[in-house]
Amino acid sequence: SSLPRPQAWLLRLPTAVVYGSLALFISVLHNVFLLYYVDTFVSVYKINKAAFWVGETVFLLWNSLNDPLFGWLSDRQFLSSQPWSGTGLSSRAVVLTRVQALGWHGPLLALSFLAFWVPWAPAGLQFLLCLCLYDGFLTLVDLHHHALLADLALSAHDRTHLNFYCSLFSAAGSLSVFASYAFWNKEDFSSFRAFCVALAAGSGLGFVGATRLLRRRVEAAGREPGCPALAVDGGLCGEELLVGGKEAGSITLGQYLRQLAHHRNFLWFVGMDLVQVFHCHFNSNFFPLFLEHLLSDHISLSMGSFLLGISYVAPHLNNLYFLPLCRRWGVYAVVRGLFLLKLGLSLLMLLAGPDCPSLLCLFIASNRVFTEGTCKLLTLVVTDLVDEDLVLNQRKQAASALLFGMVALVTKPGQTFAPLLGTWLLCFYTGHDLFQQAPLAPVGSAQPWPEPPAPPPAQVPMLRQGCFYLLVLVPITCALLQLFTWSQFTLHGRYLHTVKVQRQNLSQAQTLDVKTV
């Protein structure tokens, strides 16, 4: 009996499209969360300031620690010598485990998203519980989704192909930001609440459907000659034993951390990525401030809102152009080019000065777009580090989720440094202390606090000048630091090709020690 037409059409979708669609179900929720969670608790639920900062502090600690914790819990079975159901664990079984986890955690993420928009506990307690619950499920979904990128495909071409669809679907998901403006009303919250219920329902059902399709595709891959349904490099073909058996030694977290501490490219990468995370969040934190003090006389309020909205969508669209370049020149060269572009544009802006509104508008928007776009490309570099880690330490199976978790642990502090260092620098340059008047809104949120009182007239030119220096000197400093650390990173070109070949051959025989290459 033939399948119903819609079901048959869905089953024919390419794996890259199904994998990419998971990014849509994450981003429709997460962008709305970033924009409105603070405003909801401050303006609608009237949380007090002490409870707000306690919640944010606990959230900061949980946000940093849950990535490596969940990564270790997820990959522990793949690094252990314990047999799984009496046999070794194949690469396809690893992927199926991750897909199954996404099938559970995705709908739970949608439910935890819903918990924000209905008051069900004292505001302070609800704020703390909602943040930790939502971030916990978001971390689980992100870790498994990113780890699948490393596990589904081995070649750079296939990984950029998968990432291309992630960018396409993330851009579509960012449109929920524009749609949300039509429903957002602090006085009458019911229409926004209904909008959020619709988003959560669509996202939860999407996760269930996409993971079922992906599971069927992966199971079918082993039965079909040549694995046409999956990545063209055949990373999931065959049932080779990658974990388990007598020769696979167990590894403790302490041993893994010691191995990572000797992984030179990992250390240079996280140094560069820490600066990148800092710069991304600096741009998000200070975007409204720069618009207000540098461009408020020249652009309308609606134009400012449009710039903010487009800055969420444009990085994903940008990547649709950058990913083919990555296929041609390699991710390393494209990322280095973006750092040089950031440095060049910032120097040009510094020379032009603060009195060119059109150039300022272009620079503020492009600075955020290119910086966010670079963050999206770095996922591909982490998948290469997963390969190198596997080859260097002769593992039987890549610890994909754990390595993504360790990168997040080292780089997450950049989120905290951004507002702290930014407001200190502003105060240092201008004497204008934002915290004495109104705390700065966290990343990507609409401004929840009352507008700060206008500074004295004599201070306005100084504040404008200070904002301008902050706008251009931070990207210049970040670019210089990143160009130095990136120049020390050697996982590209011929060496990367060697690592890829060794990873593909590792299941057949232990090849040459990559350290000697």
UniProtKB/TrEMBL annotation:
Q: How does it sit in the membrane?
A: Multi-pass membrane protein
**Keyword annotations from UniProtKB, A to Z:** Membrane, Transmembrane, Transmembrane helix
What domain of life is recorded for the organism?
Answer: Eukaryota
Record InterPro entries: MFS_trans_sf, TMEM180
Transmembrane regions: 16-38, 101-118, 124-141, 162-184, 190-214, 266-287, 299-317, 329-352, 468-486
Give the record's GO CC terms: plasma membrane
The entry's localization annotation reads: Membrane
Q: What Pfam family is a match, any one? A: MFS_2
Q: Which residues form a coiled coil?
A: none
Keyword Transmembrane found = yes
CDD domains, per database record: MFS_MFSD13A
Protein name per UniProt: Major facilitator superfamily domain containing 13A
The organism that produces this protein has a lineage beginning with: Eukaryota, Metazoa, Chordata, Craniata, Vertebrata
